[in-house]
Design goal:
mainly alpha; 6 strands; elongated
Length: 705
């Protein structure tokens, strides 16, 4: 009997799980609402093709609109709307100074302004005030959306912006967007020819995109960029980059030198007092403390004050010196403990948010609930009960803790961490299942999760995600590019080329796709076609130094050494510290027997990358050929310091000593070379460098062994 009941419950649960959003919509209202929801459901069973190619990577506010709705989450996320960020009254942080006007003046003078300051001092609010003022003066606001792909604007995107070309780009929490640039930029197996990774560092894409808007869309004088980032050097845990380090100032100087840096001052105590005075009367919080005393004890941030008020309001507590916490440090752990004491399901919801954030998956109510069920233990009935209670539990956490828009440290500082490896396969299965049922709703989640799998080198699993995506989202060049690049790193070059062609059919000016197609063609030794692809990329982006370099590699492999050197030279004009180009230029010069020039190129590669053992070795070869024997030996020894297990270096050192008639050292180094690579024995049998010692007994013994 119980088996029959449990089986029926399981089937109902499965049906509800698959169609939860639709069923909730269907029965959340009566009459017209239910009928409308039903029609919507039927339509969604056969959805129209989803084409996100025209989607802007920015959220847009046209002139004379409400910018604050773009910057801050909806008021419904707050238990008390008065305490929502957008409703907190603006405070002048420094008496006698108008920060909004200062920023507007800097934007007028420099056009690109980067606001820097520590977390919680109201940088975003100041930027929002500036954006709102400019918006009322006729400027369109474009706010960078997390997870979107930046590229040159296409016709559909320009149409979405409209004809007004006075554009302010608002880049909030820039350090958060930079997290993906920390991921792999080289093939983990150390390929010589590297495909452009699909996680192209945001610093590069940001500069290219904004420059394209300046050059192709509007008069540069009618483009403004206002960016906000934290300047802390502290890290949350060992091994992570600090917010400041994520920007990588030295590596991406071309981007950062365009910005005028504005260091946001901390608010004065008087601003904190005014905040108390304006907000407390609008809440039910009872005041039992002196505002000045609280301001003095506060950590100097607006954020700490607001979080204190939210916490007191949620717990119906009075504002006293004892209930006011001077800093947020440790607060998030206490919030978490309170939440799980109040509701056991809160732990599963926090774990779900932690897991999704680590995997780059956007947070929404639907997916958080589904993921939280992965964290719930128990038998079938217990899990079913949790499933029906999750909606209520999540709604509480949204209202009290704003769990779907977590603040800095809210998840990381709760005192525990979800291990991705424990749940990644379950989450992958869930996302794929939901994507099949709701492709439009789940596209961003599957795309981001597949990118996560790619970045941690799980290419076969990432491939499955991208294969699903292109079946439902056929006209997205970015996803075809992702699929192709994953094929490339799985060494499936023909499939990669086919997918790059799909991307290029949708977006013919996709220079990264032309470049990567060239790399894949090169791996198939289709060198002429590879050069054609590099030329296509260079026609779109003439300063593409990687394309010039790899064109040089292809030309060199075709024996067109002079043309190869020309390509390397152009790459080096664009990027003078490109040590690979200096090295390969040296190889080409050596093959042309221009030995002095080859040595100079290898020296340039010494200077830039002193631990490049191959450059030291090739420099030694060039020096040997020009009969600079002692300098050659020094180069070989440098190569061995870096890689002591390189057989060919020991072999060449043996050649050097043989030419010096030093039998013992020649045989000693030849013996080391043979121990590392047996082919060195066969090479020595016919190498004329050993002719002077060929009749020596020690040499005969090692050769004839």
């Amino acid at each position: 009997m119980w088996d029959v009941i449990l089986n029926a419950i399981a089937k109902l649960t499965q049906f509800y799980t698959t169609h939860q959003v639709t069923i909730d919509n269907l029965f959340s209202g009566g009459g017209v609402v239910a009928v409308t929801a039903f029609i919507f459901w039927v339509k969604r069973l056969h959805p129209p093709p989803f084409d996100p190619s025209s989607r802007l990577p920015f959220e847009l506010v046209k002139p004379n609109r409400d910018v604050f709705s773009l910057v801050y989450p909806p008021v419904s996320d707050y238990k008390n709307p008065v305490l929502a960020d957008r409703n907190i009254p603006y405070q002048r942080r420094i008496q006698g100074r108008n920060i909004t006007q200062e920023l507007c003046q800097h934007l007028h003078e420099h056009r690109w302004v980067l606001i820097m300051g520590r977390t919680g001092i109201g940088k975003t609010r100041e930027a929002a005030e500036v954006a709102q003022q400019l918006n009322h003066e006729g400027w369109t606001i474009l706010k960078l959306a997390l997870g979107e792909w930046l590229d040159r604007p296409n016709a559909e995107q320009l149409q979405a912006i409209g004809t007004d070309r006075k554009l302010l780009f608002l880049l909030d929490d820039l350090h958060q967007f930079m997290r993906r640039s920390e991921a792999i930029e080289k093939h983990p197996q150390g390929k010589d020819n590297l495909a452009m990774p699909m996680n192209i560092p945001l610093q590069e894409r940001l500069l290219d995109t904004l420059t394209a808007y300046e050059n192709d869309v509007a008069d540069p004088q009618e483009i403004r960029v206002l960016a906000i980032t934290r300047n802390e050097k502290e890290v949350y845990r060992a091994g992570q980059d600090s917010p400041l380090d994520k920007l990588q100032w030295d590596k991406y100087q071309n981007l950062w030198r365009k910005f005028h840096v504005y260091n946001m001052p901390d608010p004065e105590d008087s601003a904190i007092v005014e905040l108390f005075q304006e907000v407390i009367p609008k809440t039910k919080i009872k005041q039992e403390a002196n505002y000045i005393d609280l301001a003095v004890s506060n950590d100097g941030t607006f954020r700490n004050v607001v979080e204190n008020l939210v916490s007191l309001d949620n717990q119906n507590l009075a504002l006293t010196k004892q209930t006011f916490k001077p800093t947020l440090q440790g607060t998030w752990h206490q919030h978490y403990q309170t939440a799980i004491q109040r509701d056991k399901l809160a732990e599963a919801i926090y774990d779900a948010v932690d897991l999704l954030q680590q995997c780059y998956v956007p947070l929404n109510e639907f997916l958080v609930k589904k993921t939280a069920l992965l964290m719930v233990e128990g038998n079938r009935l217990q899990r079913l009960w949790c499933q029906f209670r999750l909606k209520e539990s999540l709604n509480k956490l949204i209202a009290i803790e704003r769990i779907l828009t977590p603040r800095d440290g809210q998840i990381k500082e709760r005192g525990k961490r979800v291990e991705i490896t424990d749940y990644s396969k379950q989450l992958e299965k869930l996302i794929l299942k939901l994507f099949k049922a709701e492709p439009q709703l789940m596209t961003e989640a599957l795309k981001n999760f597949s990118l996560f799998l790619y970045q941690v080198n799980l290419y076969p699993r990432a491939l499955i995600g991208y294969q699903h995506l292109v079946t439902a989202v056929k006209e997205d060049a970015e996803i075809w590019f992702y699929l192709a690049t994953t094929y490339y790193y799985l060494e499936k070059y023909a499939e990669a080329i086919q997918s790059y062609n799909k991307a290029l059919k949708i977006k013919p000016d996709y220079h990264e796709a032309w470049y990567n197609k060239g790399i894949a063609l090169g791996n198939l030794v289709q060198l002429d076609e590879a050069i054609q692809s590099y030329n296509k990329a260079l026609k779109i982006k003439p300063d593409y130094h990687e394309a010039w370099y790899n064109k040089g590699v292809a030309l060199g492999n075709l024996g067109q050494l002079h043309e190869a050197i020309q390509s390397y030279n152009i790459a080096l004009e664009i990027k003078p510290d490109y040590h690979e180009a200096w090295y390969n230029k040296g190889v080409a010069l050596g093959n042309l027997v221009q030995l002095d020039e080859a040595i100079q190129s290898y020296n340039k590669a010494l200077e830039i990358k002193p631990d490049d053992h191959q450059a030291w070795y090739n420099k030694g070869v060039a020096l040997m050929s020009s009969k600079q024997y002692q300098e050659a030996l020094n180069s070989y020894q440098k190569a061995l310091e870096i890689n002591p297990n390189d057989a060919i270096v020991y072999y060449n050192i043996a050649c050097y000593y043989a030419l010096q008639n030093n039998v013992s050292l020649a045989v000693e180094n030849l013996h080391r070379a043979i121990n590392l690579d047996e082919t060195c024995r066969e090479m020595a049998k016919t190498n004329s460098d050993f002719d002077s010692i060929r009749d020596e007994q020690l040499f005969k013994q090692i050769i004839n062994h």
